[in-house]
Design a protein that fits this description.
The structure is a homodimer of 340-residue chains.
Chain A (H helix, E strand, L loop, with lengths): L12 H7 L2 H12 L2 H6 L5 H8 L3 H13 L3 E4 L2 E4 L1 H6 L11 H5 L2 H8 L1 H7 L16 H23 L8 E6 L5 H9 L3 E7 L1 H13 L6 E5 L11 E7 L7 H14 E11 L10 H13 L8 H10 L4 E6 L6 E6 L1
Parallel strand pairs in A: 3-4, 3-6, 4-5, 6-7
Antiparallel strand pairs in A: 1-2, 7-9, 8-9
Helix pairs in contact in A: 2-5, 4-5, 10-11, 10-12, 13-15
């Protein structure tokens, strides 16, 4: 629960600031679009120089940079703006850990429009978007996802690769379902030179993952399979099948149906590795996984953020013998490993 | 400046949460629109009963109520949702301090659309909205403002009424420029039975203020004057002229022009009383006044949140002898009193 207002006396301040919180999203998105962090990092530290560097008005640049300072993404010393450690690492394009691209997906008009209809969505109980659960074949939305979200996935992907013992270098065959940017399978391939990865997604999305496979120099151990997770022929004999950020799009029945296909494609003793936002049984903690449920309400027909018990039941009904949970340190998601 | 991420180690978590902060605005707006706080206050504490009370799906209601709990506007005990002190006072319609109406103005599509174009606005240096600074005559937008924001203005209005000694009950003549909901002038009228108020605004907005004057039983000492603050005949001999939340819409020259008209309409020794978001000279603190500058960038041609020094200069150039600042306790705004 949030802390009380100043001095413990209730005030409407937090209601006010929550109603205008969208300004923070828009401002950070604009700052990333205009690339002000990279230009400040390169030395354009004053409003005039920065405006010139980003091709914008000085007035607009000054106000945006001040706002970014208020939000803690810059500091201001006299008339000089400076990067914070956070913005230097994640918002300066010259940094290998640059994550500004995620503004593209998180701030996509599609997301905004769905959320803007939330009153109606709550009445109905599911998305009111024509495209339903965004799972139409070849949906360009997932190309945006693949291009935007690879960076944020890096540490989770490394965690998963480590968790399944990739460093030992045993020959393994891995199916990466709804691969998106491909980072989860690719991290295993990078850590284990004897891993073979098969990535499944729509063909337009796989093109992004394929670029990443080339970039990481693992193309010869990475192959693609285009199609729907519910319909494509998976092949069989997999040591691991990855289900990263996919189950939350479906209801219990849909999840069981999908996980049964996963079960069938694993070799005996093989494991399904699931990445999810997993709230506690109270569904209101921890904050990020619990809040994710709203995103699924707005964007899907019947998806949700499932508790561990609910996920365990899905895997059990699909034939898995046991499921263990591994929270990712300092990240809001949990990895589940389910044994065939 | 914001605090460092967990354990002092930079993480992209705050970037992520800022990019999706708009979800908080949409969720609170939907919860207010659906009136879940009043219904919970009336006893519909479980998802099923609450859904029935608000005429919505149980799934959507459960997810929204959980999200409101995550955001600290509700608590959850088992399957029962309860109001927090803050939501009981400000978001339950049965409370005299209800402020849910402000979602109408703060979440207005007009505001959202302007902010959604922030990249372009920063390039240009001013709003790209056709209607410019929202100061077109009879703009319906200001009716929405007047209907939404009166509640939030209450404590500032009481502060101003007290500051100018209304409790002493001396006969005073007050002009309330851009009166909106009229709360500023009306609070003086309520505290001082010998105060005469003249409210100036567009005729459609004045209709809202007039309702409030009736509600407070001060109609016989409250009169209206329809027109533009830049063109209407003010009359003269005023003891006080109120300039609440208006100067930030204009550039320095526009402010001086307006304040000169105010100077002329005051009697000798009369005072202009200004309510503004006043940032420190660094323009990045305190957070709320400093951040307000972005709202003016997005919504006006050349408005801004002015520092005390800048405001003092405006009043001095318009002929005022001195200006004092009075920060409002526990509120983000400052009252300036300027003497003729």
């Amino acid at each position: 629960m949030a802390t009380a207002s100043q001095g413990g006396k209730p005030s409407p301040e937090r209601i006010f600031s929550t109603l205008i919180a969208y300004q923070q999203s828009e401002a950070l998105k604009a700052a990333i679009n205009l690339d002000i962090f990279t230009k400040i990092g390169e030395g354009a530290e004053e409003a005039g120089a920065l405006a010139k560097a980003i091709g914008a008005s000085e007035r607009g640049t000054r106000i945006l940079a001040d706002y970014m300072t208020v939000q803690g993404f810059l500091t201001k010393e006299g008339t000089h703006y400076k990067l914070t450690p956070e913005s230097a690492i994640f918002l300066d394009k010259r940094s290998p850990a640059y994550m500004g691209a995620m503004a593209g997906f998180l701030g996509a008009p599609h997301h905004r429009e769905n959320l803007a209809n939330l009153t109606e969505i709550v009445r109905k109980g599911s998305t009111i978007a024509g495209e339903g659960s965004n799972l139409a074949p070849h949906d360009e939305f997932w190309v945006e996802f693949a291009r935007s979200m690879g960076g944020l996935a890096t540490s989770s992907a490394m965690f998963i690769a480590g968790l399944i013992g990739s460093a030992e270098g045993k020959p393994v065959k891995v199916l990466d379902i709804a691969a998106g940017h491909g980072m989860f399978g690719l991290s295993i391939a990078r850590m284990n030179p004897n891993a073979q990865i098969v990535a499944l997604d729509w063909p337009n999305v796989l093109a992004v993952a394929e670029e990443n496979a080339k970039k990481f120099g693992v193309s010869e151990r990475w192959s693609k399979k285009a199609g729907s997770a519910f319909e494509a022929e998976y092949g069989d004999g997999y040591d691991y099948i990855l289900l990263t950020n996919i189950l939350h799009h479906f209801d219990h029945g849909g999840c069981v149906k999908l996980v049964k296909r996963v079960h069938a494609a694993l070799k005996p003793g093989g494991k399904a590795v699931t990445l999810e936002f997993v709230p506690n049984p109270d569904r209101v903690s921890p904050p990020v996984p619990a809040a994710f449920s709203l995103v699924m309400l707005a964007n899907t027909d019947s998806g949700d953020a499932y508790t561990f018990k609910e996920l365990e039941k899905i895997f059990s009904e699909a034939g898995f013998s046991k499921t263990d949970a591994h929270p990712i340190p300092e990240m809001p998601q949990t990895v589940l490993v389910s044994e065939k």
